[in-house]
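As a warm-up, study this chain.
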Amino acid sequence: EFKKVNKFYGDYHALKDINLSIDEGEVVSIIGPSGAGKSTLIRTMNG
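Now compare it with the structure written out below.
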């Protein structure tokens, strides 16, 4: 679970106040245009 997660690259605010909850066994797909922060979100989730 994420609550109000933010990620910065220098001065660039890549993720802004992200809230996300995924239940055990739930299958999730993350879609969006190039540069939307999909990979950044996954990397942040994985630590």
